[in-house]
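Below is how a single chain appears once it has passed through the pipeline. First comes the sequence as given, then the structure the pipeline wrote out for it. We keep one example in the README because the format questions we get most often are answered faster by looking than by reading.
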Amino acid sequence: MMSKNKKNWLIISVLYAMFFSWYTNLGGELSAEEIKFFLAQAEKNAELNNRPFSKDRYNRLKHFMEEDTGKQFIMVNNIDINENPGFVEGAKEGDTADDLLNRYMEYMTPALLKRASHPIFMGYVVNSSMDVFGIENAETWDRAALMRYKSRRVMMEIATNPVFFGKHEFKIEAMEKTIAYPVEPSFYLGDPRLLLFLILLSFGLILQIRSRD
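Resulting structure:
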């Protein structure tokens, strides 16, 4: 018969395995068929919304997907807020930049969370850029944000959803300028898989010690 300690560790192991398998991309790299599909969908969305889909954007998306490693990545965002945004279809007259961003996140938040993706850092800028080299108009920013994506597949699923295209207009109008680029972390102490492992390990050890008393 299994001891109480063994049962506890079994439950803890199963819980961690369930989270790990959900949070980690186990689907591997994007296939050639997936890349072709996502590119076609992106072009179709642009055409339906009368927005240009430049050759440069096409090539950047294609390269981003072809270089897929199957790993998680973090999108680094620098944001300069538009203090006087114009009207966007689907918004209310007089909506501020924050109102527009909230409307954008109404789609993004559930789309991200159900795919094990989420913000990991958000903050307000407290000074103009301390060091600028080789780039113009980069002295002033308002906010910074880091967004964790489970995989490049996940990002493309969200970005090529036809619903996203309309919501993206809110984000565009809310910003004066922005820079966003993907980074694969090589050192990431805040990874929830590590944090949950340490929490469950501590919990298991506490239960084991108490069972001996």
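The chain has seven helices and four strands.

See the next section for the split statistics.
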